[in-house]
Design a protein that fits this description.
Number of domains of chain B: 2
Strand content of chain B: under 5%
Radius of gyration of chain A: 17 Å
Low-confidence stretches of chain A: none
Strand content of chain A: under 5%
Structural class of chain A: mainly alpha
Largest sheet of chain B: none
Order of helices and strands of chain B: HHHHHHH
Shape of chain B: globular
Order of helices and strands of chain A: HHH
Mean pLDDT of chain A: 86
Shape of chain A: elongated
Oligomer: heterodimer
Radius of gyration of chain B: 21 Å
Low-confidence stretches of chain B: none
Largest sheet of chain A: none
Number of strands of chain B: 0
Mean pLDDT of chain B: 82
Helix content of chain B: over 70%
Number of strands of chain A: 0
Distance between the termini of chain A: 54 Å
CATH superfamily of the largest domain in chain B: NADH-ubiquinone/plastoquinone oxidoreductase chain 6, subunit NuoJ
CATH class of the largest domain in chain B: Mainly Alpha
CATH topology of the largest domain in chain B: Four Helix Bundle (Hemerythrin (Met), subunit A)
Number of helices of chain B: 7
CATH architecture of the largest domain in chain B: Up-down Bundle
Chain lengths: 101, 174
C-alpha cells in the first residue's frame, strides 16, 4: 500500500471541493463543464482508492463507467454550447435567462 | 527503499494535482485553464498507477487527456477567445461559491474519518488474477457487470446522436 486510503480520500475531497468552486464561480460555460470533469475525476480517485484498499476490482470497473459517462456528457454539453453560440453569439451564462419566468 | 520512493512520488503527485486544479479554476485565459486541467489529469493518472490501477490509468490518459480534453479545447477555439479573456472570470457571488466548495470538501473530509473504514484486505498471492488487476477487471466486466457494460455503449450512442442533432445547422424555418 503506497498511501493509506484516508489520504487518498482526503485528496479526493479536496479536488471535489475545488471542482465545486469552479463550477459555481466561473462565468465561462465551457470552463464550468471542465469543472464538472474535475469533480468526476475526484470521484474516480476515491473509487480507485477504495478498490486498492479492499483489493476488489469493482471500484475500477465503476471508475471506467464514470469515464464513459463523462465522455457522453462532454459530447452533449459541447453540442449544447455550439447550438447556444449559434443562436446567441457571444452570450455569457448571465445572459441565458430564457427559461426564467 | 522502493516503498519510500513510491510514497514520495504519491505525495508529489497529490500536491501537484491539487495545485493544478487550483490553477485550472482560477486562471484568466481559458486555454491556460485547460492546460492546467491536462496537468491535473496526468498527475491523477500517476496516482492511479501507484494505486495499482494500471488499466484505469491508461484509460485516463487516452480517453480523458487525449480525447475529452482535446474536444473541449477544440470547441473553445471555435468560439470567441479574445472576448473571454476580457470578461470577468468569476461571477459576483464567487465568495459564496468558495464557501460552498470549502464546506463540501470539509464535509467529505469529516465523513472520511467518521465512517469507520474496513481494514485493508489481505493480499492473496494469486499469480493468475491479482485482485484489482486487468484480468480480474475483465472478468468483472464480462461477468456481473455485463449488462451495465452494454448500457454504457447505449449511453455513448445516445450521446453521439444527441450531439449531432444539437450541433447541426438547421435549415431556415418555413
Amino acid at each position: 500500500m503506497v498511501a493509506p486510503v484516508e489520504t487518498v480520500l482526503g485528496l479526493s475531497a479536496v479536488l471535489f471541493g475545488i471542482g465545486v468552486f469552479g463550477f459555481l464561480a466561473r462565468r465561462n460555460i465551457i470552463l464550468m463543464l471542465v469543472s464538472v470533469e474535475v469533480m468526476l475525476n475526484a470521484v474516480n480517485l476515491s473509487l480507485v482508492g477504495f478498490s486498492s484498499h479492499l483489493a476488489d476490482a469493482r471500484g475500477q470497473v465503476l471508475a471506467l463507467f464514470v469515464i464513459a459517462v463523462a465522455a457522453a456528457e462532454a459530447g452533449i454539453g459541447l453540442g449544447l454550447v455550439i447550438a447556444l453560440n449559434r443562436n446567441k453569439p457571444g452570450a455569457s451564462v448571465a445572459d441565458l435567462t430564457d427559461l426564467k419566468w | 527503499m522502493g516503498l519510500h520512493v513510491a510514497q514520495a512520488a504519491f505525495y508529489y503527485l497529490a500536491a501537484a494535482s491539487v495545485v493544478s486544479a487550483l490553477l485550472a479554476v482560477t486562471r484568466k485565459n481559458p486555454v491556460h485553464s485547460m492546460l492546467w486541467v491536462l496537468s491535473l489529469f496526468m498527475h491523477v493518472a500517476g496516482i492511479f498507477l501507484l494505486l495499482g490501477a494500471e488499466f484505469v490509468a491508461a484509460v485516463q490518459v487516452i480517453v480523458y487527456a487525449g480525447a475529452i480534453l482535446i474536444f473541449y479545447l477544440f470547441v473553445m477555439m471555435l468560439l470567441d477567445l479574445p472576448g473571454e479573456v476580457a470578461r470577468p472570470r468569476f461571477g459576483r457571488h464567487w465568495p459564496l461559491a468558495a464557501a460552498a466548495g470549502l464546506s463540501f470538501a470539509a464535509l467529505a473530509w469529516l465523513a472520511r474519518s467518521g465512517a469507520g473504514l474496513p481494514p485493508a484486505a489481505e493480499r492473496t498471492i494469486d499469480e493468475a488474477a491479482p485482485p484489482g488487476g486487468l484480468l480480474d477487471m475483465g472478468r468483472q466486466l464480462f461477468g456481473p457487470f455485463a449488462l451495465p457494460f452494454e448500457i454504457a455503449s447505449l449511453v455513448l450512442v445516445a450521446a453521439i446522436v444527441g450531439a449531432v442533432v444539437l450541433a447541426r445547422r438547421r435549415p431556415a424555418a418555413p
